[in-house]
UniProtKB/TrEMBL annotation:
Claim: Lipid biosynthesis is one of the keywords in the record: no
Keyword Transport: no
Organism in which the protein naturally occurs: Streptomyces finlayi
Keywords: Oxidoreductase
Protein name per Swiss-Prot or TrEMBL: FAD-dependent oxidoreductase
Length: 359
């Protein structure tokens, strides 16, 4: 047990946890960031080799410090993001403790108790920023199948060289599915399968425009106007250069979703089949929230309902990152700064009222 209670424990040291740390530090709060990772960078450490951001560096920055451009690349690669996040946490001397996987957050009188195998921390407030990478989602079709080949999820995919010459089915019409299909198109016998026809954003639209949409949305919500909606109406897939090249070469022809797996591949309802050595499920993620279960908070569609970032039913808990439900674009580098500031400010306000004399 770490004896003296802290103001705040941040759980998760990816970009969302760092943005929270930046604002907590500015507000002079006493905090630690507990991170299960072995090193800095959050999910970006585990991305596949060719993953590039869908926005230029200047549009991929956390509060306080612009991401420097990556020489020779308009859209920085994942390793560049890891280097930026490494520098960020050092520059702001953020109190990261690694590796610490938080197993449970519990009520402890006026405090919250944060438990891990390696220690226990007590805090007046908690920010949970554990992301989604740790909870890959697989549809029911992937389970209990007789398929004898290899099944991977986005989180398992690293490089086309691992699959050269194989028959590969990539499932998913989002950015991950499109990018991995493009990565594999030239060197494998590829079948790309999407639930609905792939919707490419116009070629001149990248993450900058998506962020602009999120900004308009936030402004409308702040002013109590009707939610104008997110970016869904624009399309799903940012046509980053490798995706655009594969699409324009005619290599990204999507087939509709198959209805079942066979021993040796996949089968559609009309009786057609495709043989496969490997199926890659690019079917998304769910928020990694199991450590919050002991708090007994209500769940809606796998989320903990929030007002802004604050958990409904537990004002000492804030959720950051994860998806638009914790703030427009809060699961992006540039978008997480604002909700991080809101969470830190709300906690400072709460502690200002409740804290009383400090230890
Ligand atoms: P993460 O980066 O996942 O960090 C969470 C951290 O919490 C990890 O270090 C993890 O180890 C730790 N953790 C988890 N559980 C626990 C626990 N119980 N106890 C302690 N620590 C824990 N965003 C952009 O801005 N631009 C892009 O171009 C872009 N492209 C993307 C492409 C892909 C394919 C994907 C999947 C995402 C992309 N994103 C992009 C979205 C977004 O930036 C990432 O999802 C981002 O990693 C989310 O950051 P995070 O800090 O919320 O979570």
């Amino acid at each position: 047990m770490n004896d003296a209670p802290l103001d705040v424990v941040v759980i998760g040291g990816g970009q969302a946890g760092l943005a929270a740390g930046y604002h907590l530090r500015r507000l002079g709060l006493d905090f630690v960031v507990l991170d299960a990772g072995s090193g800095p960078g959050g999910a970006w450490q585990h991305a596949w080799d060719s993953l590039h951001l869908f926005s230029p560096a200047a549009y991929s920055s956390l509060p306080g410090r612009l991401m420097p451009p990556q020489p020779g690349e308009t859209y920085p690669g994942a390793r560049h993001v890891v280097a930026y996040l490494t520098d960020y946490e050092q520059r702001y001397e953020l109190p990261l403790i690694r590796p610490v996987r938080v197993e449970a957050v519990r009520h402890d009188g006026e405090l919250l108790r944060v438990e891990a195998a390696t220690g226990t921390w007590r805090a007046r407030a908690v920010i949970s920023a554990t992301g989604t990478w740790g909870r890959p989602f697989l549809p029911a079709l992937a389970n209990g199948a007789e398929f004898r080949g290899q099944q991977l999820h986005t989180v398992d995919y690293r490089s086309p060289s691992d699959l050269t010459g194989r028959r590969v089915v990539v499932v998913g019409g989002g950015n991950s599915g499109a990018q991995i299909a493009a990565d594999l198109a030239a060197t494998t016998d590829l079948t790309w399968v999407t639930q609905r026809p792939p919707r490419f954003l116009p070629d001149d639209i990248d993450g900058r425009a998506l962020f602009d949409v999120a900004t308009v949305r936030r402004r409308a919500l702040d002013e109590g106007r009707t939610d104008p909606g997110g970016v869904g109406s624009l399309g799903d897939i940012v046509a980053v250069p490798p995706v655009r090249a594969a699409r324009d070469a005619g290599l990204l022809q999507a087939r509709p979703m198959f209805s079942r797996l066979t021993r040796t591949g996949v089968a559609w309802a009309d009786g057609t089949t495709a043989e496969a050595d490997t199926i890659i499920w690019c079917t998304g993620f769910r928020p990694a929230l199991s450590h919050l279960a002991p708090l007994g908070l209500r769940r809606t569609r796998g989320h903990i309902p929030t007002t802004g970032t604050q958990a409904q039913g537990e004002p000492r808990l804030h959720l950051l990152g994860y998806g638009d439900w914790t703030g427009p674009a809060s699961a992006t580098l540039i978008g997480v700064g604002r909700p991080a500031r809101d969470a830190a400010t709300a906690i400072a306000g709460l502690l200002g009222q409740d804290r009383g004399p400090r230890r």
